[in-house]
Amino acid sequence: AQTVTQSQPEMSVQEAETVTLSCTYDTSESNYYLFWYKQPPSRQMILVIRQEAYKQQNATENRFSVNFQKAAKSFSLKISDSQLGDTAMYFCAFMNLLRGSQGNLIFGKGTKLSVKP
Amino acid sequence: DSGVTQTPKHLITATGQRVTLRCSPRSGDLSVYWYQQSLDQGLQFLIQYYNGEERAKGNILERFSAQQFPDLHSELNLSSLELGDSALYFCASSVGVSGGAGETQYFGPGTRLLVL
Description:
The complex is a heterodimer.
Chain A: E1 3-5, E2 10-14, E3 19-21, E4 24-26, E5 32-39, E6 46-52, E7 60-61, E8 64-69, E9 74-79, E10 88-96, E11 105-107, E12 111-116
Parallel strand pairs in A: 2-12
Antiparallel strand pairs in A: 1-4, 3-9, 5-6, 5-10, 7-8, 8-9, 10-11, 10-12
Chain B: E1 5-7, E2 10-13, E3 19-24, E4 31-38, E5 42-50, E6 53-57, E7 64-68, E8 74-78, E9 87-94, E10 106-107, E11 111-115
């Protein structure tokens, strides 16, 4: 069974600084997708970024980028120029594309990020 | 706003009772997923429906059931409620062209259930 591990329960960063959140996963499959979701205090789950395992190029969305290391099964999220609105719980998620899985997400436990003024 | 709506936002009930949570997917989305977020279990996948049919099951209890209607809205029924069922229940939807595989899921705001 696939597992997702986020080893940093809590992190903090100063406004305008850069922070990296770690995620590792375990799978024997070669075809899958990876996601980062953000959950602010409102509890809404918001997609931050996604990465297809077959793509070597790391995904980027504005201030958010990932470092995808397929061999190491690592998928970290880098937030540049941190803003107060980035304060949230961040979840790493894995989606197996094996036929029959049908795309359900497997989540890590989350990293609580606090951006300090 | 993701375009996914869930009602009610909050629900308080007693042990042994039954409740129904409702979800309307984004316009055009065929796949609906239900997830449970609790303090001890984290975010867990419960069940998926695709165009009215059950497609995948996760860690869903036998006391729980779901269905997707012809207009594509979905309902999650929780019965014989226990204290441990208190959680935030999310519905997510995706386009569903490929049955959901590989598609980004957009989450609703969730229903917070408190069982007393």
